Amino acid sequence: MGRVRRCEGPGCGWFFLDRSRSGTRRWCSSQDCDNRDRARRHYSRARQRG
Ligand SMILES: [Zn+2]
Predict the structure, then answer these.
(1) In angstroms, what is the span from residue 49 Cα to ligand 1's centroid?
(2) Which residue, 25, 29, 34, 36, could crosslink 18 as a Cys pair with Cβ 3.0–4.6 Å?
(3) How far is CA 3 from CA 22, 41, 43, 47, in A?
(4) Is residue 15 part of a domain?
(5) Distance from the CA of 42 to the center of ligand 1, in angstroms?
């Protein structure tokens, strides 16, 4: 089960398999993208310029 979705991460565009129940995942499994939502505060300083 699952659906193929495209990552919404800027400059990413990777495709990933969304296995979440609700199917609302928006980012691929890359740390840059996956953690963007949860820890954007945490890393805002370190990754400001990417
Ligand atoms: Zn991504």
Answers:
(1) 17
(2) 25
(3) 11, 29, 29, 30
(4) yes
(5) 18
